[in-house]
Design a protein that fits this description.
With 429 residues, the chain is α/β, with parallel strands linked by helices. Helix content is 26%, strand content 28%. It has ten helices and 18 strands. Strand 8 and strand 9 form a beta hairpin.
């Protein structure tokens, strides 16, 4: 009897794990008739919409759909699908993405699906113009920042250390004395010199755990925050900052290139490379940078401004081609000029050119290797801007779109990203 009781308790203990909530029973799919989602300009793309419950089509389901160039869809309708299916088609004469969004209404809840067909994406070109003094502006800003001593701090985090990796919270001066950048440094325990990777963050305010896995393979990794606060505090502190003092920081100072919030953020990325070079066992050869969304932008920035970077991997990079919306074409997050097409924002438009990922991508050279990845269904970072940014890079580069992703990663995408970076560091995946 005692044995039966122990077995029963063990089974009950496993139930919360086995019963995790995953996905939805009701699924909306929008499928193109080309497997690679790619079409030539002027071709017609055909889309098959299906709404299923438990894998079977739902009769009489109500939907709303919007179709047309992404962010500028003109065809919008509400329908009842007799057998749960709908066939649509669309075309573009110019390079770009034709997007179909479908929302199904089932039992008082909404379920969404989307597809964005690529029309001659390799021909897309950005709209943003590089200011004549762009390089000089950033060279001078970096020069001034580097006159400030890093004055680094380093605190061991024993609860995060492993048998192979020592983990620290570090900080160092940014563009001026007392303006600090904080991060998590991971260093292999074994004595030696190692390749390095700078991890740059997506938008928001949060703590960081550090890239212990990559460090365990034989690399120095530094994951930084951008807001000048420690990165090991309780989550509630970051939530309060995100909703309060740092709310909407990406719009601050956009009428003056010297007052933009992103100026000290960008300089913090360069100072992070200074820290790696001066205070870690970097081998002086392979130095990389990677991040997603805002971090994708910062990857382009860091690679463009600093030739210590030998490899970079921007994933669905934000803050690219801000001015595209001035010509009625999808623009990058945070979509500064989308709502009013820049009317009355002449100073902001000019400032935006100094903080556009496209212009930093133009500075990347032939000694730096790049890996670009993004999703065609991303409604935060439009693939129009992601492809155009990729196209403008003249150095060695690879592209690996994951068409069905929105503003998130698939596991396979993450695995490919990690393997590519390890190879750049001379480490077997």
């Amino acid at each position: 009897m005692k044995r039966f009781f122990l077995v029963l308790m063990a089974v009950l203990a496993l139930l919360p794990v086995a019963g995790q909530i995953r996905g939805n029973n009701i699924v909306v799919t929008v499928e193109p008739d080309h497997q690679d989602w790619r079409y030539d300009a002027g071709q017609t793309a055909r889309f098959r919409v299906e709404v299923r419950r438990s894998g079977t089509l739902i009769d009489g389901v109500q939907i709303d759909y919007a179709a047309g160039p992404e962010m500028y869809q003109t065809e919008k309708k509400s329908l009842t699908l007799k057998d749960g299916t709908l066939d649509l088609k669309g075309s573009m004469r110019q390079p770009g993405f034709y997007r179909v969004d479908v929302t199904a209404h089932v039992d008082g809840k909404d379920y969404k699906g989307a597809c964005a067909a690529a029309f001659a994406p390799e021909q897309l070109q950005p709209s943003t113009v590089m200011p004549q003094d762009f390089e000089q502006f950033w060279k001078q800003a970096i020069k001034e920042a580097q006159t400030v001593d890093l004055n680094p701090t380093k605190r061991l985090l024993p609860e995060r250390c492993t048998k192979d990796v020592d983990v620290y919270e570090v900080s160092f001066n940014n563009s001026k004395w007392g303006s600090r950048t904080y991060g998590i440094l991971c260093v292999p325990v074994k004595e030696g010199r190692y390749p390095a990777l700078l991890r740059v963050p997506g938008a928001g305010v949060r703590p960081y755990g550090g890239d212990i896995y990559t460090a365990s393979r034989g690399a120095v990794t530094l994951e930084i925050g951008i807001h000048g606060v420690p990165v090991t505090m309780e989550q509630q502190v970051y939530t309060n900052l995100n909703e309060g003092a740092l709310s909407g920081y990406w719009e601050w100072g956009m009428d003056d290139r010297d007052k933009s919030y992103y100026k000290h953020v960008i300089l913090g990325c360069i100072r992070a490379l200074d820290y790696i070079e001066q205070y870690t066992p970097w081998n002086g050869q392979q130095m990389g940078v990677s991040g997603s969304s805002q971090g994708g932008f910062l990857s382009l920035v860091t690679a463009g401004l600093d030739k210590r970077i030998t490899y970079y991997a921007p994933v669905h990079a934000a803050l690219c081609d801000h001015t595209n919306s001035l010509r009625g074409v999808a623009c990058g997050w945070p979509h500064y000029f989308y709502w009013n097409k820049g009317k009355g924002q002449e100073r902001q438009i000019e400032t935006s050119r100094y903080y556009d990922g496209v212009n930093f991508a133009r500075l990347i050279d032939n000694q730096q290797k790049g890996w670009f990845s993004f999703g065609y269904c991303d409604d935060v970072v439009p693939p129009t801007t992601a492809w155009a940014t990729y196209n403008i890079v003249t150095g060695p580069k690879e592209i690996s779109p994951y068409q069905m992703t929105w503003h998130f990663w698939y596991q396979e995408q993450w695995d490919e990203w990690e393997s590519w970076m390890l190879r750049q560091m001379g480490i077997e995946p």
